Amino acid sequence: MFSSSKDVFIHGVTVYGSCQGAGIYDAVVAIKEGSINADKAIKRVELSTDTNEKVYEIDFDTPVLIEKGKQYDIVLTMKGPASYYGEKGKSEIECEGVQFKFGKSKYSDNTTNEGRGQLPGIIFDVIPGPN
């Protein structure tokens, strides 16, 4: 679960790949608007990973508008081999003048939360104008 201090467009997310050599995942990533539980975007991909990279991008077909102050959930399902994951994540960061706040999603049914999980990054652009 996250919110931002400015309106942004999300172009995609980064995910961790296989920790057991080359691997193929059936991945689905969705952005849900928290207050109405509606999918703002959904992307299904077959993601091929190898041992050369730990992190891979999954891009949405069109940018997703994220409105400042609203809560959103990124829901990721990856079916495939065991993967790397991040630890010691932060509940709040600032990047490109935007403050992002993170929390545990109501959709999480595993150990993923703001401190530990499969999503190391959000690919975004700040929307110009009075934010």
Automatic annotation (TrEMBL):
Q: Where is the PHR domain positioned along the sequence?
A: 2-124
The domain of life for this entry's organism is: Eukaryota
Q: Kindly list the biological process annotations in GO that this record carries.
A: neurogenesis
Protein name in the entry = PHR domain-containing protein
**Which terms in the GO cellular component ontology are assigned?**
cytosol
